[in-house]
Structure formats: structure tokens, C-alpha cells
């Protein structure tokens, strides 16, 4: 079987257009999921779709769970392939793993408060796409 590949350096704005087709609308949490997923691909050296596993700690209640659709678009992880799980938590946080390495990525608390206080306003999406990763997220990489 030949798997597609995802460019870890892809323009998040282009992926957002695909994300909107899946998700149904543009929003900051969709964009954050895309940014998280691309960070995971680069850090783990992954080409996406297979070999990588994602675990979102968002739960299934919008708006925070909208992050999951962005993760799917950026990494190719899906529930159907069994390499995406959504766990309770209500946090904009995900754990990615591949080849014995694990990356935990969490949205900075200030950003989460701001986005949720705005009702996940679509107007924040471009700001999320443009912000430096270090401003948006904290992350840590570990090996087993």
C-alpha cells in the first residue's frame, strides 16, 4: 500500500482550507490543531498518515474539541485507522508518538483563556496562524 505524505513545513493557511472542508467553518481551534499537528510531524520526523499516533485531551465538546479536526488535517491521523483517540480533559492538549518518541503539546494557558472567552471567535484564526509556535504552545519530547 502506498501512503500519501504530508509536508511538515506546509503552509498552515493552505491546510486550513482543507480543514474548513472537513470541519465546516473557519475557527481558531481548527487552526491550532493544524499548527499542533505540523509541529508534531516536524519534531517526530513523520510524513503523516501512518506510523504516527495522536491522542487529543480535548474531550468531545465544542469548541475545544474542534482542535481534533485540525490534528486530523495536519497529521492524517484518524479514528478510522485507529491512530487517533480523543480522551476526556477539556484541554487544548495532544500527545503524539512515533518510533518510541512522544511529544506532548499544550496550548499556552493565556491563549486558551482568550480563545474560550471569545467564544472561539473566527476573527482570531488569522492571529493563530501567524503567531510563533513558542507563543502558542509548550511542548516536551521524550523517548521510551
Total helices: the number is: 6
Oligomer: single chain
If strands are numbered along the chain, what order do they take across the biggest sheet? 2-1-3-4-5
Number of domains: 1
- Are there runs of 5+ residues with pLDDT below 50, and where? none
Give a description of the structure.
With 144 residues, this protein is of the alpha+beta class. The chain has one domain (12-143): 60s Ribosomal Protein L30, Chain: A (2-Layer Sandwich). Helix content is 40%, strand content 19%. The protein has six helices and five strands. Strands 2-1-3-4-5 form a five-stranded mixed β-sheet. Helix 3 links the parallel strand 1 and strand 2. Helix 1 packs across helix 3 (66-75). The mean pLDDT is 96.
Write the layout of secondary structure elements.
Elements: H1 12-23, H2 28-44, E1 53-56, H3 66-75, E2 84-86, E3 93-98, E4 101-107, H4 109-117, H5 125-130, H6 133-136, E5 137-143
Parallel strand pairs: 1-2
Antiparallel strand pairs: 1-3, 3-4, 4-5
Helix pairs in contact: 1-2, 1-3, 2-3
Features:
144 residues; alpha+beta; 60s Ribosomal Protein L30, Chain: A; 5-stranded mixed sheet; 19% strand; globular
Care to give the gist of this entry?
With about 140 residues, the protein is α+β, with helices and mostly antiparallel strands. The chain has helices spanning about 10-25, 30-45, 65-75, 110-115, 125-130, 135, and strands at about 55, 85, 95-100, 100-105, 135-144. The chain is built from 6 helices and 5 strands.
Amino acid at each position: 500500500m502506498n501512503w500519501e505524505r504530508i509536508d511538515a513545513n506546509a503552509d498552515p493557511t493552505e491546510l486550513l482550507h482543507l480543514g474548513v472542508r472537513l470541519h465546516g467553518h473557519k475557527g481558531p481551534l481548527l487552526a491550532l490543531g493544524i499548527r499542533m499537528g505540523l509541529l508534531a510531524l516536524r519534531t517526530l520526523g513523520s510524513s503523516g498518515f501512518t506510523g504516527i499516533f495522536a491522542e487529543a485531551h480535548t474531550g468531545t465538546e465544542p469548541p475545544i474539541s474542534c482542535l481534533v479536526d485540525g490534528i486530523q488535517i495536519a497529521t492524517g491521523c484518524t479514528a478510522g485507522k485507529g491512530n487517533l483517540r480523543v480522551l476526556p480533559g477539556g484541554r487544548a492538549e495532544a500527545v503524539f508518538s512515533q518510533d518510541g518518541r512522544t511529544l506532548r503539546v499544550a496550548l499556552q494557558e493565556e491563549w486558551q483563556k482568550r480563545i474560550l472567552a471569545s467564544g472561539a471567535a473566527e476573527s482570531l484564526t488569522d492571529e493563530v496562524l501567524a503567531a510563533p509556535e513558542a507563543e502558542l504552545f509548550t511542548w516536551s519530547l521524550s523517548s521510551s
